[in-house]
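Milestone 3.1: sequence recovery, worked example.
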């Protein structure tokens, strides 16, 4: 150990020549993972620190389509210092012939309990909402501009007119409302009483924000509230996790981007391995001398392992520093682009995670060339070859153990075992495919160099012979560039297929509008109006209630179903006397049309299989505060992907008799008639809310585009690492190219022919890497679309062509950068130096 440490120290005094690619690859990979982790931690810290402001209070009790009962209000008032009531729903804002969907929030005089509402002009909220002949309202600027409204002008919600008191700049609790279809409008709850918008069965939610005494145990308060009211459809949230949906999205997206960063580290690992191998080849004379003087193989192994350890520490430290500086430098832009608070700082957890990945990757990819050098004899080294045999089994076991530790760490840190394992499997599979492709490419090039194809084409023959030669340049280029391009190809294929599904498939079958809040006495006139319109091809309508699945076979639903989406929050429920023609019964029997017995429910078959439900199970559903227990008597195949009407749960009509409810409808119409249909229905039924499906699809498309952009940036970082490896491979092969050029010049080759040979070599390698990347990226895209997105996959050729062109250009650039010295070299000097 002492001798090995002394040798390592003395060699490192010679500088970092030979390890620049090693350090660059490690630094870039660690920096990418650290930067993503710090941004995720900053968002999570901001959500935690500002939890009460984001929620609008210390805690919130939410009810579906009803106000709290006197008993529930008394419970809140007994425990909170202040209680603020908020009601939220969708409606249509109307100005003359113009109308637009808006998310209405009715507030009381205490709103907001925490934070401040920012308005333009900067009035107090109470002044902006004051009744001056007409009740006041504040409206998001986008909506006001869309309707052409100025402050002081009037508009209509339902059957009541309102005055625009100010433009809404920011509301402190905006992100806790989840996904909304329209811009925000704030009014006083008292002004909604005569608007016709909160009739029995209307789709709305009430939120009661609680200002609790200092020191209140939020966990105990939650347990007490859920014990008292959970079976009545109450949902609790508090400042500990003010926006769990945003937290979950940020956490999952961050985990995914870290896994993409791991792909970048794998690319860097190829460069690390190549750099170590090239460094050891340059140390042939040193290692030979040490072996001649009696140094054992393990002494030499330890000496270079110590060097790798020291350089790994340097590379990881540089990566962590860069990973900290990049988010801090970009913090103003990130804060301005996100709709929630971000608290930037130096958080240890993501830095430790990045260091963990960097250290393990460095040692996994260096143990193989180090272990091979251990088994090389001095005589073989003096003959000029640094290649050893296969590493001994302890080193192979160590590589396997470190790889397993790396994958286990990815599973533990990501919190999504399936995603982490799939990503790790994809990276390993891509590396195996690329390694096999590199081997086949070398053999094919070797054969092609001797074939008729190369006869008379000197530059091509030289390029093919170089690719098929004994040097490892082809393997390094195909592995590093191929893996980076594979990640980019997968992102391109997934993004293209998602956009295709949105832009091509859905509009072909999706309805023009969803209409909600159709009262029971309006549904017949509504349907007759539309069915008599020649521009309407189809109308579907169904009764609509909302309920919370609280128990399954007497047990709390979340104990049985976990975090399945069906038990998270309230779900749409309908009733029917016969099965809908679009939902086929695949198990059990639907009830007779005149059935009047105990409640029965028909459940969506796919969701039932995911939760583990079967025929005969009993479900307790809370609807408007009333528990209804029903037996599953049939399972239906429901297609939710059509953007049409579909319900997870449908009950027999008698089970919901007397429950206040409204109807929803989907309308399929010619695009040019959509505006006219909306105007006619809105005039006849001002309380009805219309949701344009194309607008909703655009909102989803924007969210998907943001995710795709973030992923593309992460993939670009992987590609940058791959380009660094290319530079390293080209630099490592420069000495061989100098000798090759000298021999060719001696034999009469011109500089142009030598340059053409170098360019062809680079282009062939880049093209091969791009073609293999298309295969690997296409497989990854197909797997994600088929098994994760549950959607069809279609190969997208434009991005695939761009991948091949990018691969060729990247290798050409890297190769030509290191072609100048070989072209300028004097054959006499080079050949004398080889004697």
């Amino acid at each position: 150990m002492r001798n090995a440490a002394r040798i390592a120290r003395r060699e490192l005094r010679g500088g970092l020549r030979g390890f620049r690619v090693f350090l660059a690859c490690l630094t870039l990979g660690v920096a990418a993972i650290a930067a993503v982790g710090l941004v995720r931690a900053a968002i999570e810290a901001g959500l935690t620190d500002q939890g009460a402001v984001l929620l609008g209070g210390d805690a919130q009790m939410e009810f579906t389509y009803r106000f709290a009962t006197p008993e529930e209000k008394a419970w809140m008032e007994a425990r909170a210092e202040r209680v603020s009531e908020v009601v939220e729903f969708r409606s249509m804002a109307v100005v003359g012939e113009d109308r637009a969907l808006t998310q209405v929030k009715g507030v009381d005089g205490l709103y907001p309990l925490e934070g401040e509402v920012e308005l333009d002009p900067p009035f107090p909220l109470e002044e902006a909402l004051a009744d001056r002949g007409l009740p006041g309202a504040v409206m998001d600027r986008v909506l006001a501009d869309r309707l052409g409204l100025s402050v002081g002008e009037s508009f209509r919600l339902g059957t009541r007119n309102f005055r625009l008191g100010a433009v809404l700049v920011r509301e402190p609790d905006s992100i806790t409302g989840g996904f909304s279809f329209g811009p925000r409008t704030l009014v006083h709850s008292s002004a909604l009483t005569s608007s016709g918008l909160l009739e029995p069965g209307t789709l709305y939610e009430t939120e009661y924000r609680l200002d609790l005494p200092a020191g209140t145990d939020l966990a105990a308060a939650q347990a007490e509230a859920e014990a008292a009211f959970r079976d009545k459809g109450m949902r609790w949230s508090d400042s500990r996790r003010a926006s769990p949906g945003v937290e979950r999205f940020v956490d999952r997206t961050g985990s995914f981007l870290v896994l993409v960063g791991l792909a970048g580290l794998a690319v860097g690992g190829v460069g690390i391995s190549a750099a170590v191998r090239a460094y050891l080849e340059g140390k042939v004379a040193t290692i030979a001398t040490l072996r001649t003087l009696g140094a054992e193989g393990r002494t030499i192994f330890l000496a270079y392992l110590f060097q790798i350890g020291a350089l790994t520490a340097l590379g990881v430290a540089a990566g962590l520093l860069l990973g900290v500086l990049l988010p801090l430098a970009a913090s103003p832009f990130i804060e301005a682009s996100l709709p929630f608070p971000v608290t930037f700082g130096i958080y240890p957890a993501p830095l430790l995670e990045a260091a963990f990945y960097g250290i393990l990757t460095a040692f996994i990819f260096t143990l193989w060339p180090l272990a091979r050098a251990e088994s090389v004899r001095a005589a073989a080294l003096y003959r000029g070859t640094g290649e050893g045999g296969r590493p001994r089994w302890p080193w192979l076991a160590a590589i396997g153990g470190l790889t397993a530790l790396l994958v286990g760490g990815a599973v533990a840190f990501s919190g999504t075992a399936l995603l982490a394992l799939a990503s790790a499997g994809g990276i390993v599979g891509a590396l195996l495919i690329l390694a096999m492709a590199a081997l086949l490419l070398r053999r094919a090039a070797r054969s092609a160099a001797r074939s008729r194809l190369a006869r008379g084409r000197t530059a091509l023959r030289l390029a093919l012979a170089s690719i098929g030669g004994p040097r490892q340049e082809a393997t390094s280029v195909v592995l590093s560039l191929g893996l980076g391009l594979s990640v980019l190809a997968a992102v391109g294929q997934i993004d293209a297929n998602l956009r295709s599904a949105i832009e091509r498939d859905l509009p072909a079958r999706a309805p023009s509008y969803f209409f909600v809040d159709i009262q029971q006495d309006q549904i017949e006139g509504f349907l007759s109006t539309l069915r008599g319109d020649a521009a309407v091809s189809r109308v579907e309508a169904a009764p609509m209630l909302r309920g919370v699945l609280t128990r399954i076979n007497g047990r709390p639903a979340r104990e049985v179903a976990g975090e399945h989406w069906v038990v998270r929050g309230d779900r749409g429920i309908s009733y029917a006397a016969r099965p809908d023609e679009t939902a086929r019964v695949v198990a059990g029997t639907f009830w007779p049309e005149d059935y009047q017995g105990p409640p029965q429910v028909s459940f969506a078959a796919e969701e039932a299989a995911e939760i583990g439900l079967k025929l005969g199970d009993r479900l307790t559903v809370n609807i408007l505060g009333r528990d209804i227990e029903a037996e599953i008597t049939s399972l239906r195949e429901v297609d939710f992907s059509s953007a049409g009407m579909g319900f997870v749960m449908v009950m027999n009509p008698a089970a919901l008799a007397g429950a206040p409810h409204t109807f929803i409808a989907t309308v399929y119409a010619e695009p040019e008639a959509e505006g006219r249909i909306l105007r006619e229905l809105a005039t006849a039924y001002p309380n009805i809310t219309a949701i344009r499906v194309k607008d909703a699809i655009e909102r989803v498309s924007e969210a998907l585009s943001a995710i795709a952009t973030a992923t593309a940036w992460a993939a670009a970082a992987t590609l940058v690492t791959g380009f660094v490896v290319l530079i390293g491979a080209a630099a490592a092969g420069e000495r061989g190219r100098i000798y090759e050029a000298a021999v060719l010049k001696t034999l009469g080759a011109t500089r142009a022919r030598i340059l053409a040979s170098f360019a062809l070599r680079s282009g062939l390698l880049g093209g091969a890497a791009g073609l293999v990347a298309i295969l690997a990226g296409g497989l990854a895209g197909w797997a994600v679309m088929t098994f994760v997105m549950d959607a069809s996959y279609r190969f997208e050729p434009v991005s695939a062509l761009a991948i091949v062109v990018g691969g060729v250009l990247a290798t050409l650039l890297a190769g030509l950068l290191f072609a100048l010295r070989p072209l300028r070299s004097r054959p006499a000097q080079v050949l004398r130096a080889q004697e």
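The chain has a mean pLDDT of 81. Residues 72 and 228 are 9 Å apart (CA to CA).
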